[in-house]
Specification:
Radius of gyration of chain A: 18 Å
Number of strands of chain B: 10
Shape of chain B: globular
Radius of gyration of chain B: 17 Å
Order of helices and strands of chain B: EEEHEEHEHHHHEHEHEEHH
Helix content of chain B: 25-40%
Distance between the termini of chain A: 47 Å
Helix content of chain A: over 70%
Strand order of the largest sheet of chain A: 1-2
Strand content of chain B: 25-35%
Order of helices and strands of chain A: HHHHEEHHHHHHHH
CATH superfamily of one domain in chain B: P-loop containing nucleotide triphosphate hydrolases
Number of strands of chain A: 2
Structural class of chain A: mainly alpha
Number of helices of chain B: 10
CATH class of one domain in chain B: Alpha Beta
Oligomer: heterodimer
Largest sheet of chain B: 6 strands, mixed
Chain lengths: 285, 234
């Protein structure tokens, strides 16, 4: 039971990490929060629903399709919402909150609102770890998260364009003075942000109820994680994702999901009281 | 090389720079001195494209640059070590310098420039893997200058390089500015430390509340009784 819960925590933490990292990254570069991030997650799940469940593509191919498709949605959001509303946090907030509703209705109108879309589980059976049983579909999430996070780390710390992205997040004006084109960088950040949310949604499609409103729960959790981790800190988001994964899973197992959500928010409040800049956030000079 | 002609810069409705004209010749150090809020930093920010002048013209090597973005101006060969250093705090010294060379494609020359910068600032070589935010003020100033030099600029803008530094560190910075000039760099130096600035520069402009109050050879201004009284504390 204990091992089972720990294993579930790690899986939950991995999914949270993939989702939250994208949100933290977009916030770092633009200083604006994307309230439609949960709907990017939902879009990823629907890509798998369409390509895998409806069109009969192999599951991995359908998951890979989610990356460019939702990445492109990220780029479109940057171009059509964040760029015109730059320097106006309120407008960006309203517009992305609006986008969230538009995407929900659009998906609902196209594929139906009522019952959840059924996506058959591609990998039946479960893995046995010291007596704990974890479905292969869930096991798959962990290496995907590790792969995605390592690729992101490599890009940000070893590739010139990735370093430029970090420079933009730390001091956009100075980044421009080095010749870094900031519009390209915000576009890149939103592409990565969308792609990662889409990937998470795609991986979860067979084990998460696929509905137009599945982004709701995700966005709340993602914001709790990003605030706990320190808003712009990607490492902080990963750390907070796994911590919250443990907290949510244990509380859900011992009590129920609603209590888990409450405890999660309480954890965030606690972090904000003890360390207002977040676990790995830094105080602005 | 660089000329400002009747430049006005506004913040909202307030004019910070009121129709100033400045000439900078090739291989010269030109200094802008004046009290806090005189418009010196704003002038530099207008040259580098961070503020768009509301009227007037800025020409660099004969071409107008006052409608270009900061990215484009950097690409033309103007680099700035800004007020307050503004290094990327959570990047290493090495990464900061790499960002300075962001636009450059000529790998071999970039490598040589790294060496040149480490020659001017040996401490940066020692600290190259350290996070820039953990450097001392003087070291950050050196890094900001090094980062600006890494773009291989034709014109270097230095905004208050001595601000907040110890007298010894200030002398060190002054020495490096002189070396850079001897190597043929063109430099615009904004300073509150008028004594240091007037020793380094050939021409000087004195700014007061957005206007050029006085300009001429630095040597002459140094002996001007009014300047001595107001800016040199004699």
């Amino acid at each position: 039971m204990l091992i089972q819960t720990i294993a579930n925590s790690v899986v939950a933490g991995s999914v949270y990490a993939i989702i939250a990292v994208g949100l933290a990254m977009a916030f770092g570069v633009m200083k604006m929060a994307n309230f439609a991030h949960g709907e990017f997650f939902m879009a990823g799940a629907y890509v798998v629903y369409v390509f895998y469940a409806l069109l009969g593509w192999p599951f991995p191919a359908a998951v890979l399709m989610a990356v460019p498709i939702v990445g492109a949605m990220g780029i479109a959001t940057e171009r059509l919402i964040f760029r015109p509303t730059r320097d106006n946090v309120m407008a960006g907030f309203m517009a992305t909150a609006g986008l969230a509703f538009i995407l929900q209705v659009l998906v609902g109108q196209t594929w139906g609102v009522g019952l959840m879309r059924s996506v058959p589980t591609p990998y039946m059976g479960a893995m046995d770890i010291f007596g704990a049983k974890i479905g292969w579909q869930r096991v798959l999430v962990l290496p995907s998260a590790v792969l995605m996070l390592s690729a992101l780390w490599f890009f940000l710390y070893r590739v010139k364009a990735g370093k430029a992205l970090r420079a933009c997040a730390q001091d956009p004006e100075m980044a421009r003075l080095q010749g870094i084109r900031i519009n390209r960088m915000t576009m890149l950040a939103m592409a990565i942000s969308g792609a990662s949310a889409g990937l998470a949604g795609a991986l979860m499609a067979p084990i998460h109820p696929v509905t137009p409103y599945m982004g709701h729960g995700v966005i709340l959790t993602a914001f709790i994680i990003v605030v706990m981790g320190g808003m712009e800190s990607i490492a902080g988001a990963v750390l907070a994702a796994f911590l919250l994964g443990i907290v949510h899973t244990f509380v859900t197992t011992l009590s129920d999901a609603v209590t888990a959500q409450m405890v999660g928010v309480a954890c965030m409040a606690l972090v904000l009281i003890v360390r207002p800049q977040g676990l790995l956030g830094r105080v602005k000079a | 090389m660089l000329s400002l002609d009747g430049i006005w810069v506004h913040y909202g409705t307030v004019a910070a720079v009121k129709g100033i004209s400045i000439e900078v010749g090739e291989n010269e150090i030109v200094t802008l001195i004046g009290a806090n809020g005189a418009g010196k930093t704003t002038t530099l920010r207008a040259i580098s494209g961070l503020h768009r002048p509301s009227s007037g013209e800025i020409r660099f090597q004969g071409e107008r640059i006052d409608r270009l973005t900061p990215e484009e101006i950097t690409a033309r060969g103007i680099a700035m070590a800004p007020e307050g250093r503004r290094v990327f705090p959570q990047m290493t010294v090495m990464e900061n310098l790499e960002m300075g060379a962001y636009l450059r494609q000529d790998g071999a020359r970039v490598k040589r420039d790294f060496e040149e910068i480490f020659h001017h600032f040996p401490i940066l070589r020692e600290r190259r893997k350290q996070m820039a935010g953990t450097l001392s003020g003087g070291q950050q100033q050196m890094l900001a200058m090094g980062r600006a030099l890494m773009s291989g600029p034709k014109l270097l803008l230095l905004d208050e390089p001595s601000l907040g530094l110890s007298p010894i560190m200030t002398q060190e910075i002054a020495k490096i500015v002189r070396e850079l000039h001897q190597l043929g760099r063109t430099i615009v130096l904004v300073e509150q430390n008028a004594r240091m600035a007037l020793r380094l520069a050939k021409h000087a402009y004195v700014m007061e509340t957005g206007n050029i109050a006085l300009h001429g050879l630095a040597e002459d201004l140094r002996h001007d009784p009014k300047i001595q009284q107001t800016y040199l504390g004699a």
